[in-house]
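Hi all, long-time lurker, first post. I run a small reading group and we've been trying to get comfortable going from sequence to structure in the token notation. Rather than ask abstract questions, I figured I'd post a concrete chain and ask someone more experienced to write out its structure so we can walk through it together at our next meeting. Sequence below, copied exactly:
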Amino acid sequence: MSFHLRALLASLLLACCAGATAADFPCLCDRDEIAAHARLEFEIYGPLSVKVEYFGFIFHDGERLRSAVVRSRRCTPSDCVIQVDEAGKRIPKGVRVLGEWHTHPHDGAPQLSEHDVRGAYRNRNVRCYTAFYSNPDGEIFAWNPAETSVPTAMATRERVGWYGEQLSAALGTLARL
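-- Answer (accepted) --
Happy to help. Here is the structure in token form:
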């Protein structure tokens, strides 16, 4: 994604948050709630990420957390780019943006890409901004969007789940019945 598109997106994110106060958004900076929302999104979109990536900006609309979601074109093992500016256009005005999440295709790279790191970094000044991704095996990680390189971002990763957990638990329950 071009620098100009990323700059436009960062401006859009800041504009969406302008004028909002903590009273407007009761879950402001509830990182556990944000991570729970991201895990739910991964439960939906992770299994669909066989040959594509999904990306979503997480926002609070005054009532609940939601995501503005887009999908990439078909990926190849060496190339998978998603137009996140389209997700930015789907963010309603006046909401509080709190983060982003994206999947990697099932035959994709297990680590973050330079595009992933640079994109999240551009939003590092958005209050409470949290970045998540899932690797091809379905593990879900949060990482620090203030990092400037793949190695430093990867060093801050924290595993927050696996998008097969709920399915595995349900199958285990069914097997015991």
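A couple of things your group might point at:
The mean pLDDT is 84.
The beta strands are 54-60, 65-71, 96-103, 130-134, 139-143, 158-162.
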